[in-house]
Amino acid sequence: MPRSTTTLVLATRRSPLALRQAEMTRTALAAMPGAWWKKIELLELSTTGDNRRDWSLAQTGGKGLFTRELEDALLEGRAHLAVHSSKDLPTTLPEGLTLAGFLPRADPRDMLVRREEIKIPQRVATGSPRRRAQAQAWWPDVEWTEIRGNLDTRLKKIAQGEADATFLAAAGLDRLGIKTFLGLVFEKLSIEKMIPAAGQGAIALECRAEDAAQYAPALCAKTARAVFVERAALAALGGGCQLSSAVHLAGNKLHVYHEPKGRAVFAVKNKSVEEATAAAVAAVQAWLKSK
């Protein structure tokens, strides 16, 4: 897109959470000194995943369902940046696009949300194979069902008794200011109990490869290191956002879950992104080959 104007365009989904994340991005970029843009506009788009709520994500796979239309806007020159939840992004991006970076990461943990009268759920709603596979270790006899919709819709469905409980990302709830909901109990799960999805809690900015460097001053290097390591380790596992794999880098500890291999924790002490990524991939590959 030629810079014939001084307006920066951010492509975003239309959900309340996506729009909140786009506003956070607009604030961060507006504060960047020396930027060529004087105005930042949102390009609101619906994705395949938004439009096909009758689809089972566990059965159809989630790769690209919530990102493709935003990426098309980049490739077609209708937007400069696409704003994503990092955990929605496939590990492989379309040719010509790259990740410019990330806003500072929020709480990456998962939240168990259950009806307050329920102590041990018998029916749990989630569209995430990752969450289901890990939770089956605690609740082997639970009945599983899927749930779709934005955060408010899912909370209402649980409160109305469609299921006893569900899982949500703590970061999404925090960004929308949802701390309580009538009739429901919120319980944050430790990283050790429920390993998050790669990139969970981080807002990713995708752009055309040749434009990436100009956005770096507004973005978080610490978050970039962690998410790039997680994405590389996830690719080594052969996983995506809707598969039963999970990767999270907490400090120098890489927490990994892979069905049916199980759980593991690896030390990743290398400082540079390249060194840390190589170390993480090597550790995961060796683990998968071990008996």
List keywords for this structure.
alpha/beta, D-Maltodextrin-Binding Protein, domain 2, 2 domains, 5-stranded mixed sheet, 9 helices, 13 strands
Task: Outline the fold blueprint.
Blueprint: E1 7-13, H1 16-30, E2 39-45, H2 48-51, H3 57-60, H4 68-75, E3 81-85, E4 97-102, E5 110-115, E6 123-125, H5 129-135, E7 143-145, H6 151-159, E8 165-169, H7 170-175, E9 184-188, E10 203-208, H8 221-237, E11 245-250, E12 253-258, E13 262-267, H9 273-289
Parallel strand pairs: 1-2, 1-3, 6-7, 6-8
Antiparallel strand pairs: 3-10, 4-10, 5-8, 5-9, 11-12, 12-13
Helix pairs in contact: 8-9
Task: Describe the fold and architecture.
By secondary structure, this protein is an alpha/beta fold. It has two domains: 7-106 and 198-289, D-Maltodextrin-Binding Protein, domain 2; 110-188, Periplasmic binding protein-like II (D-Maltodextrin-Binding Protein, domain 2, 3-Layer(aba) Sandwich). It has helices spanning 16-30, 48-51, 57-60, 68-75, 129-135, 151-159, 170-175, 221-237, 273-289; strands spanning 7-13, 39-45, 81-85, 97-102, 110-115, 123-125, 143-145, 165-169, 184-188, 203-208, 245-250, 253-258, 262-267. Strand 6 (123-125), helix 5 (129-135) and strand 7 form a beta-alpha-beta unit. Helix 8 packs parallel to helix 9 (273-289). The longest helix has 17 residues, at 221-237.
